[in-house]
Here is the input.
Amino acid sequence: MSSKHHHLIEAYGDLVFDLLESSLGNTQNAQIALTRVLQDLGAELTSDSKAPPFEVHERAWVLRHACNHVFALESKIGQARPSAQDRVILDGADSPTVRLKAFDHYFRGLPLLDRLVLLLREKHQIPFGEIASALGLP
Here is the structure.
């Protein structure tokens, strides 16, 4: 493992794992995706190219790899969509536990791109420019 690869793991490993787990909703799938992300990063860092593999933002480059794996896994496992009844439960639940479960179910039913943007911006405070770069958006 190169020192650059080690640096990326130290700097972004927790962020990437949290993003994977939060967006996929499953620790096992997140661990599988993290292993693949780290393999991809290592392969790019050890390629013959002398230029850095990222254009502007190192973190966005790392997140792009993570998001690509989330999209790939999501297409394999699919996601349930929330129903109108789920929205009523979220609005009318008295118990914080019930509200949290309803919110979690509703959040998981959002389109993957929406979940990723919300997680990156609201949970991890990533600037919009980096989010766009990480998601390959203009």
Summary: The two ends are 33 Å apart (CA to CA). Helices lie at 3-24, 27-45, 58-77, 84-92, 96-109, 112-123, 128-135. DSSP finds seven helices and no strands in the chain. The CA atoms of residues 83 and 106 lie 8 Å apart.
